[in-house]
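INFO  loader      accepted 1 record
INFO  loader      residues=87
INFO  predictor   begin
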Amino acid sequence: MDMETVRSLRRAAKDIVTQNNAPQEELERRLAICGGCEHKKGAKCNLCGCFLNYKTRLASSECPMGEWSAFFPETSIDSPSKQQASE
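INFO  predictor   done
INFO  writer      dumping tokens
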């Protein structure tokens, strides 16, 4: 198992324990993307081996093809305009 897989599993475990789920709208968007993917086989992704109904639900999950990435709410990211205003 390579280090990136270990990191990904660690993030997934943390999301499961803390119930850090992506919002329903993001979950549906991810599932729609996966639904048309050539690597989807049944309920799983053939690239990473994950069950898509679980992988797409976890906020920090990412598509191995780069089609969708981890979900970070806008409120948790400081925008440059907010940083400049506080300086």
